[in-house]
Amino acid sequence: MPDATAVDITSHDTFVQGVPHEVFARLRAESPISWTEEADGGRGFWSITKYDDVLFASRHTELFSSRLGIRMEDMSDEETEARRTMMEMDSPEHTRLRRIVARPFTPRAVADYEGAVRELAQEVLANLQGRNEFDFVKDVARELPMKMLGRLLGLPDNDLDWLVSRGDALIGNSDPDFTDYVVDQTDTSDYRLLPFRSPVAIELFEYAQRALEERRATPTHDVLTALLAPSKDGDTLDDATLKNFFTLMVAAGNDTTRYTMTAGTQVFMEHPEIFASIPSMDSAQMKLLVDEVLRWASTTMHFRRTVVEDTELHGQKLKKGDKVVIWYISANFDDDQFDDPMTFDPARTPNDHVAFGLHSAHLCLGAHLARLELRVMFEEMAKAWSSIEAAGPSERFRSNFISGTKRLPVKVTWR
Ligand code: HEM
After folding, report:
1. Which CATH superfamily is domain 4-414 in?
2. Which of 56, 197, 319, 341 has CA 20 to 30 A from 152's CA?
3. How is the chain split into domains, by residue range?
4. What is the pLDDT of residues 161-193, one digit of tens each?
5. Pocket of ligand 1 from Cβ distances under 6 Å
6. Tell me: the pLDDT tens digits for 290-312?
7. Gap between the Cα atoms of 379 and 182, Å rounded
């Protein structure tokens, strides 16, 4: 095994080569709660890598807080305050906001979107008719999540490409392909009070403000209008919260699903028999397949918490104020939890992966929507194409936070 300490898991560059699974395996075996130094002057953090410890830290929000930041990097109090979204809240503040915004994302609400998702997936694939080679990420995976979010938020189709590019610039703030303001390569201090330290957030705030004003003037049936309505107990959200939530949707609901869809497609390219079996899978089998893709991709590799009071975990003494990074991607490959985790098993049961976080306060709000988009797109791809194979080298995204392939040239055979 390579020396775990020789691989810098804080560096965005490390993940361009691929996820260093062997490093996480070694940490799980030898040092499940390990101190990780940050190369660029950060104060360092605890890495939690075992499934059970990830569960413990996520569930005990009274000991591990989200309020002081959920990204590995340190932020000043001023920055954290200005950039706060529901992700950087603890209860009761978090519970109150989540109760209001969760309405359009419940399983029942999302089940109603299946027709729209399928129509959009078919449209994305129909636009490719006549082409056998294309970039799967750009032409398929990047298209569906934003189009669907656009439908949900009631945004005009003409704005969607622009919104995708703005979302990319935010989440892609560590990859020069997506932004001119690369966080660890340019001076972004002027933008430190904005989400992702990016001036792009201003454009999104302005866009959101206009969209909200339009809905106030003329209410419609979309999610934005719903968010303006008071909850059952009369609770409403102020504009700053609404704009931060809008920006969070565009950032969180976009590339995560895209990269997971891409990871699934890479599996289908390596295992054509799995792709070939999709048309005959029933809904329970499709559910298992999608969940294994989610585990396998583990697209959001980590989230951070901060220790609220001195505590001991797995024999390590964690001090109040210490940063703790919860490596979901490591938990998803823990062989104490998953049999033969490095094997993709389309029928894996049980599969209690943590790709969406935990069934606790911050479980991904878009989990049902993402599952639906992945299932429907895989079903439509298998209906449209009898095979899919590589047509050139792929390229990975530069990020220690999001694991993904940003370019995947493919060659397909249409049915
Ligand atoms: C495969 C796709 C996705 C993955 C892997 C993913 C992953 C995650 C994870 C791991 C968290 C937990 C954060 C934490 O522990 O602090 C989270 C939270 C969240 N996700 Fe997702 N996500 C996906 C898709 C989406 C979509 C489609 C949306 C919205 C349309 C979305 C919106 C959110 C929001 C708003 C939160 C914050 C929830 C809270 O703090 O209560 N996500 N996501």
Report:
1. Cytochrome P450 (1.10.630.10)
2. 197
3. 4-414
4. 888 888 888 777 677 777 776 666 667 666 666
5. 66, 70, 86-87, 98, 149, 248-249, 252-253, 256-257, 260, 299-300, 303, 328, 355-357, 362, 364-366, 369-370
6. 999 999 999 999 999 999 999 99
7. 37
